[in-house]
Amino acid sequence: MILKDVGSSKLNVVKVIKTLTGLGLEESKDLADTTPCVIKSNIPREEAEAIKAELVEVGAIVEITGGPAPLPQPAPLPQPAGYDVILKDVGPDKLNVVKIIKTLTGLGLEESKDLADTTPCAIKSNIPREEAEAIKAELIEAGAIVEIR
Fold it and tell me: Could you tell me which of 141, 86, 129, 114 has the C-alpha nearest to residue 10?
């Protein structure tokens, strides 16, 4: 079961990968970022077809391969030089924090809420320190707990 491309709805694909593999959110995102990658191997054809349907439904491009050996996992990508803004907790004013996430990420309201519900999560990644500090300040002002890595 090879994920060839995450398509336009990366967050939904990452959630499906998380459910299928039992990995954490960050590990599932890292796996999705290394396409093409093996999601599952040595599984029955029926299970592979069901997984493929689930991933295709959220916009991913998936290939089922046969053969005795699964494809090797790609080497991890080097760490980016930028900073990540990590939402640790939404705080008491979740709606305001979700609105800020929506503005910052360009996601829809539902996707922004889903992202806020999966704390800790990266709101923005690989950005300049100044931008990360500005985003952190805006989220903290709304009552969120935020960290820059």
Answer: 114
Closest Cα partner for 12 from 60, 49, 63? 60
Its pTM stands at: 0.46
Q: What tokens appear for 91 in the block?
A: 């705080």
Q: Is the dihedral of CA 131, 136, 141, 142 positive or negative?
A: positive
Size (the chain), residues: 149
What order of strands is seen across the sheet that includes strand 61-63? 37-38, 2-5, 61-63
Cα–Cα distance measured from residue 71 to residue 36, given in angstroms and rounded to the nearest whole number: 10
Please provide residue 6's backbone torsions phi and psi, each rounded to the nearest 5 degrees.
-80, -15
The upper half-sphere exposure of residue 47, i.e. CA atoms within 13 Å in the direction of its Cβ, equals 8
pLDDT tens, position by position, 43-100: 888 888 998 999 999 999 988 886 545 555 666 655 556 888 999 999 999 999 999 9
The strand pair at 61-63 and 121-127 is best described as unpaired
